[in-house]
Design a protein that fits this description.
With 307 residues, this protein is α/β, with parallel strands linked by helices. It has three domains: 1-42; 89-243, 3-Layer(aba) Sandwich (Rossmann fold), CATH 3.40.50.11980; 251-289, no CATH class. 40% of the residues lie in helices and 11% in strands. It is built from twelve helices and eleven strands. It has helices at residues 2-11, 16-26, 32-42, 47-53, 93-100, 108-121, 148-155, 176-187, 198-203, 205-214, 239-242, 284-305; strands spanning 89-92, 106-107, 126-131, 144-145, 159-162, 164-167, 170-173, 190-192, 215-216, 219-220, 225-226. The strands form four sheets. Strands 5-3-1-8-9 form a five-stranded parallel sheet, with helices on both faces. The longest helix has 22 residues, at 284-305. It is elongated. The relative contact order is 0.08.
Amino acid sequence: VHQSKLEFFCKLGYGKKDICKVLENLGQEALEDDVLKELIRMGSKPQALETQAQPSLLKLVARGSCSTSPGSKWFREDDSDSSDHLRPIVIDGSNVAMSHGNKEVFSCWGIQLAVDWFRERGHTYIKVFVPLWRKEPPRQDCPIADQHILEELEKQSILVYTPSRKVKGKRVVCYDDRYIVKVAYEKDGVIVSNDHYRDLQNENPEWKWFIEQRLLMYSFVSNRFMPPDDPLGRHGPTLNNFLSKNPVLPEPKWQPCPYGKKCTYGNKCKFYHPERPHQAQLSVADELRAKVRAPLILGGAAEQRDP
């Protein structure tokens, strides 16, 4: 009986010395409620409550961050919150959520996956735009999954609701795409969406160029957010350069000429000739003319020197 009561109160977090002392005073047959009252009267506290009362010496570090400060730098709203070398990120929340929900469910988990992907890369300015009516309870014709994620991202100052209201029972919704493009354009950032925003491209020529050059498309593969490694095509920048303010250009790689020394294209050949790295690439005819012209020039110069 003593051992069972000792184990029971130890699981509650009380110290063995206090438990044994109370059992000695009240007796081994004392009820558990009486033992608990006596422990409380003595001022004994469970270890879990004591650790919560003590200030923690450990500081949490945000994922993808090397900072040891307890406050995460993602949530600062000043203009200096974006890192020096990574572009700001503006996410089309509706597009990402519907894409993750297979165009049937507004999946808030897809938004969280996209935000986490950019956080782990070190981006400090991340904004997600979602219409305000998505805060309403889900309906059968507009199902929403993991709606609590929107509230969590809003508390972190990452998610922004675009305004909407009801007039005579009808919902009036502001165009959230215009918010997305405008903020990304002003921040000189990147738009994360599979939408092409053709109507906004026709509306503003500056936005047209920006959308063409700064639109980052994506795919979801087994709950994994995956943007392409070549956002602007095979001959465009890499993903790292696309998301960087100061892209690093790769060194040019010359492909050797498949014809080698038998090549007859000369300076018109677009391939690399290792046998003549320091001389101009001349055609075979030009090389022959140069060889014939050289002794003639030397002979004429010698005749001019003779008296």
